[in-house]
Structures are given as C-alpha cells and as structure tokens.
Design goal:
This protein is an alpha/beta fold. 34% of the residues lie in helices and 13% in strands. It has 16 helices and 14 strands. Bound molecules: guanosine-5'-diphosphate.
Length: 479
C-alpha cells in the first residue's frame, strides 16, 4: 500500500531511451516528442554506442552544416572547380528521387553511410521534403541551401556524367597513380538500374578513394544498408552500433523522420477518430503493381485467405443473422491503405453483412484512395506519409510484396509483417502470405560481387545476418 497518490499516466520516455536529443522547441514539431504517446513500449533499446555516435554526429553537423565557416570554405573550393585539398568537413548530398517510401529508405541509408564515414548529410529539398519532415538536428538545418552552386547540374546527373563514379572508373579517371588529384565532388549513381562499375561503391578499395572527396552526391531509390554490412571496414562499427541487426531502420527512422505538424495532424486525428478505442488494430497495406487499376478479385481472395488462415481476422458466420452480443464483444479496427477503395469496401461490407464466429466486432477503415501515384501534389504526399505512419501504429500488420511503402510502416513500427506474396498470372498465390523473418526493409538491387576475389558471389549467403528477402528472391535484408 502506498499513501501517496500515483499519477494515472506514467510519464513516458519521450526521448526514446536517449535516442532523441533533448532541447528542441516542441511546438514546431509536435510529433518528435509526442510519438511515444501513440506507440507501444519499445521492445528494443538503442545501444549506448549508437546514442553516443548520434550525439557526436550532431556536433559535427553543427560545426559543418549549412552557412557555417567550414561549409563556406569547402563551397569556395567547389565553386572554383579546384582539385580537392583535405578539409575537416566532408559532405554527403542526398538527392530527392523516386516515390515517398523509397525516399524514406534511401534517406536512412544515406544517413547511416554519412555517420560511418564522418560526413555531414545534406538533403535536397525536392518538391516537398521540408513540408513532410521536421529538422532532425538541433540548431543547424539538414536541408541543402537553395543557392548550392551545382544544384542546376543535379537534373543532368546520370551514369554517363563526367563525375559519375562508375563512369570515372570506365574512363580510368580513378587511378592509384599520383597523376590525378581527387575531384571536388563525385556523383554516386545507386539507382536500381546501376551497372557493375557503379556497384563497386560497395567495395573497400573504392571506399578509400572516396575519403579524399569532400562532396559526394548520391542518387538512390534503394535501401542499401544490408550491403554496407558486407563491407569489411564498416563491419565492426556496424556491429557496435546495432547489436540487434534487425533494428537498424527502426532506430534510424525514429531518430531521423518526424512528421511535420500538418502530417502529424493527419495522423493523430485519424488515429483518435477511428483506431484509438479498438482492442486491437490490424493494418493491411495493399499495393498492386499492375498496369491496370483494379481492384482485382484475386487480390481480395488473397487478403481474405491470408488474414483468415493466420488468424488475423475472424471468420464470418454465414448462417446466423445475428449473434447474441453478450459474448465476446472485443472490437478490432482494420486500417487499410491502398490507392483504390475496392478492397476496403468489400472487407467492410463482409463484416457488416455477417456476424463473426467469435462475436468480435470488426470495423474497417481506409483514410484515402488516391487512385494513382501523384508526385507533385502536396496533400497527396502528406497523406502517403501519414498513412505509412498510421500503419506503423498497428498491433499486427499485413503488407504487400516489393512495396517500400509497407517497409517503412513495418520498420518504424517494429513489426514483423505477414507479407502477401506477389500474385502471378492474376491468381491468388498459395500459400497467400508468410511471416517476415525481421522487420527490416529489403534491398531490391544488391550487388553480387566479391570485391577481394573480383568474382561473382551470392551475397545472401556470406553472413548469417544478411539473407535473401521473403518477397524478392534476389533482394537482401538484415535479420
Ligand atoms: P512503393 O512504390 O510501394 O515501393 O512505394 P513508394 O512510396 O515509393 O511509391 C508509391 C507512391 O504511390 C507513394 O509514395 C504514394 O504517393 C502512392 N501510394 C501508393 N500506395 C498508397 C496508399 O496506400 N496510400 C496513399 N495515400 N498513397 C499511396
């Protein structure tokens, strides 16, 4: 017994076990410290090494970030086109490229690479980056200044560019000989269509060349972290940072990606209105990679087969018009996301027209049905981000194969999803889905190259914690 009244609400750990720094203005980005109110208790804790590494990154960012003295100095060099001389500040510029799910995954990848190589991450604004994400570092912006001298060249960067690393290798510009002083910047093409030379980015020899380049400019649409774990010079550091390998995106995402207030409004209003009161929340993320819009019967069949077989949703009772409500009155909220409304309507009607065999009450909700992917519309991407975030707040999650949208949700939520297999020839696969091995995203376009032996190798067979993905046989993921 205790004579002192206890507070009803135990103050939660808003800094996520030291992952987040204290001291931000709370109102300018409510999600940063409020996210903990909507999330389940962290099943994993960040390592003290990760925390100290993040704190020292923040110091570096503050010293070298936009418009600091060091930044201005390295800019002069870039502008004059001089050959590089050693600088105490080196940079990684992340180019805004591809769909929002892809962008989130590449941003986390680029940040980890920056941390590993003591570079300062600067983010190209694109159409909407500042509209979607809060500043993650205290005091100094992570956004690439609009007057950055070579932004007008960004659009022309491709595999054939003079500064593209793969192309430089082809043209023998990267020599070990002293004849070539390093360039002030190098463009790294890590897009899914990259070739064998571009892929040498993942080799130690090539990494040592980059150490002399003050500006690296990176374009990617892939979660390339699994292959960083296969680079010998990064191995020990990564082990120290992430003793639990499957928590990489989980921690990086929670550290780096905070929805801006408009997006946070979309998240919290929806959550409070439709999800908060349910006993359990099931997320179902439907992404159909088909040229025709759908909805398709085989996809609906697959959703039902998976959720019933895995006991994620109760079966319906076809014979009874009503079940005595005195029984199990648990409510389950199903949060669906999809570009189309067809699957949601079918599932909602199913549980309206029939009772469940368990007596559970099932509510089915879908925030939007945008029809098709739209890149330039502000509200479209806000909703996409809000929906990924809402999915990450569910208790159990079903995702679609190959979708980075689903990867973001599972990773941020710390959830091992049930993955719906990719349908072939418009038929529902059997089995319809399987449980993921880990909550990590899949790297869709990994290299299959042994840098030491200079020969092909199955990179999914080298170490126990980097394996082929459940949903893409040639992909790589951390487990
Ligand atoms: P991926 O193509 O599934 O890997 O995911 P991306 O996020 O990279 O690209 C898909 C884009 O399509 C998203 O960024 C959204 O713009 C849109 N989109 C796809 N599915 C949904 C959805 O369920 N809800 C919303 N609001 N947008 C979606």
């Amino acid at each position: 017994e205790d004579d002192f009244p206890q507070p009803v609400e135990v103050p939660k750990d808003k800094l996520l076990g030291g992952l987040l720094p204290a001291g931000f203005d709370e109102r300018s980005c409510l999600s940063r410290y409020q996210s903990v109110l909507y999330r389940k208790e962290l099943p994993h804790k960040p390592s003290s090494y990760l925390i100290s590494k993040l704190r020292s990154y923040e110091v570096l960012h503050k010293r070298c970030g936009p418009h600091t003295e060091s930044y201005n100095k390295t800019l002069e060099q870039l502008q004059s086109g001089q050959r590089a001389s050693p600088s105490d500040c080196n940079y990684l510029v992340w180019m805004s490229f591809s769909g929002l799910g892809n962008r989130i995954l590449t941003l986390a990848s680029a940040f980890l690479y920056a941390v590993l190589t003591n570079r300062v991450l600067l983010v190209e604004r694109g159409v909407d980056m500042p509209d979607l994400f809060c500043e993650p570092f205290l005091g100094v912006s992570w956004l690439l200044p609009s007057d950055f001298p070579i932004t007008d060249q960004f659009n022309s960067f491709d595999q054939k560019s003079l500064h593209c690393y793969g192309n430089m290798l082809k043209k023998n510009i990267v020599g070990n000989s002293t004849g070539f002083a390093p360039l002030p910047f190098v463009y790294l093409h890590l897009v899914h269509d990259y070739d064998d030379q571009d892929k040498l980015f993942f080799c130690d020899q090539d990494q040592s060349y980059f150490q002399k380049i003050p500006w690296l400019i990176m374009k990617s649409d892939n979660y390339f972290i699994p292959s960083l774990f296969l680079i010998p010079s990064f191995e020990q550091e990564l082990n120290n940072l992430f003793p639990e390998k499957e928590t990489v995106f989980y921690f990086l995402g929670r550290y780096l990606l905070h929805p801006t207030n408009p997006v946070w409004g979309l998240v919290t209003r929806y959550y409070e209105a439709y999800l908060a009161k349910a006993d359990e929340i099931l997320g179902i993320q439907i992404r159909v990679f088909d040229t025709e819009p759908g909805p398709f019967q085989h996809v609906l069949d697959q959703i039902l087969a998976c959720t019933m077989k895995e006991n994620l949703l109760p079966k319906i009772n076809q014979n009874e018009p009503i079940i005595d409500p005195s029984g199990n009155q648990k409510t389950k909220a199903v949060l669906m996301t999809s570009l189309s409304s067809g699957y949601f309507e079918k599932l909602r009607d199913l549980y309206w027209e029939h009772p469940t065999v368990t007596g559970e009450v099932i509510g089915v909700y879908q925030p939007s049905h945008e029809g098709y992917q739209q890149t330039e519309k502000q509200m479209h991407n806000r909703k996409a981000w809000a929906e990924m975030y809402l999915l990450s707040l569910t208790d159990k999650l079903v995702t679609s194969s190959w979708s980075t949208f689903g990867y973001v949700a599972q990773g941020l939520g710390g959830l091992k999803p049930w993955i719906l297999y990719k349908p072939e020839n418009r038929t529902a696969p059997n089995p319809p889905c399987r449980r993921a091995m880990s909550m990590e995203p899949c790297f869709h376009a990994p290299p299959f190259y042994d840098c030491k032996r200079k020969a092909g190798v199955d990179t999914g067979e080298l170490v126990p914690h980097v394996r082929h993905c459940e949903d893409m046989s040639w992909g790589l993921k951390l487990i």
